[in-house]
């Protein structure tokens, strides 16, 4: 694992004071899986570069793991800039991360030109994710994929050669790298416990609350642990004096809400289409999976044939918001029909089995495509409702939104938006794999060139498939 930090601030050798590592000698620091070395490939008055090289001991790396054979030794941890490098960054530059420099205090408080190079950076979201994470913080991002093998035409790997340029305080640059390196990797080499929330909030104190990808950063840094993510978002909200749900991108307002030349808003049209499909199915016990703040739940309450309605969401704050909007505490009759549960849709929840119907309204696009298989298993394979209704944006229709910049999604939390062919492919493959029939329907007026604004699929479990 390798990372360099360079500056052209003059005298550039002052970088040694800021990092508390003298340019004239190499220094080493022990870390959990080996040794971190700091040295200076270049140290002149006009330009100075500090390098962090992490030498991983493969025996230390796997100590305490239970895997057998070679599997525990064969991984990218010794080479890729993930959580191991973040830990080494903290160990090697502990004082610099705090922004303290006794010999150059004015320099520690000053933004200086910085360039960071990471030649092997894993990114489970490609170049786009690096841009989304670093550009809002003032970094200019240059990234190119690393070939699987430059001698053979095997295509690109998931690793990037990345250079970041910005004028920032060195302490800010280091804390951002400390948080975002493992976020890009999408995993950590150590157990994520309660103290990780404190680490995240300390490191992100100056910039995380205002970051447009704060929820994604929080989820990935905390390894998608629901209790830890909820605690972190609540504390961020308290620190910034805002409602906690305002920090949850899944509850944020979409970029577009109105379709051109449509008689009603997209939200109203989707709700009406879902309600019609549920009525046609004859369902009485209904799940609203990914219910968010409860917009669909309010509509379902207007249908007396639904005797039991369950709203499910991974966000505890979203459920609290839904309960307030539905006034469940003040209305006994509503509380008898509606219940709210916190659950992740990518994990099997036995309590969700046995319902007549389930709705995923504008939900799947909020889940990383790599996790959709887990959602399909949890909903279609384990819960097995008689009917499943799914809606999602039609990406082809996006060109009709004048307020939506080219290449942008309709919502800041969307992981993807599919065209009609891709949605049809997914729906038919899912139905075939789990014993359902499926019908695809438009939501909203159909444009002859790009289709309807929203796509809807109605899955019906085949007879005899239990």
Automatic annotation (TrEMBL):
Keywords: Magnesium, Metal-binding, Methyltransferase, RNA-binding, RNA-mediated gene silencing, S-adenosyl-L-methionine, Transferase. InterPro entries: 3'-RNA_MeTfrase_Hen1_bac, Hen1, Hen1_N, Hen1_N_sf, SAM-dependent_MTases_sf. Transmembrane segments: none annotated. The keyword RNA-binding applies. It is an enzyme of class 2 (transferase). It catalyses: small RNA 3'-end nucleotide + S-adenosyl-L-methionine = small RNA 3'-end 2'-O-methylnucleotide + S-adenosyl-L-homocysteine + H(+). The keyword Hydrolase does not apply. Its cofactor is Mg(2+). Gene3D superfamilies: Hen1, N-terminal domain, Vaccinia Virus protein VP39. Residues 1-237 form the Hen1 N-terminal domain. Its EC number is 2.1.1.386. It holds the Pfam family Hen1_L. Belongs to the methyltransferase superfamily. HEN1 family. This is Small RNA 2'-O-methyltransferase. It comes from Haloechinothrix salitolerans. The lineage of its organism: Bacteria, Bacillati, Actinomycetota, Actinomycetes, Pseudonocardiales.
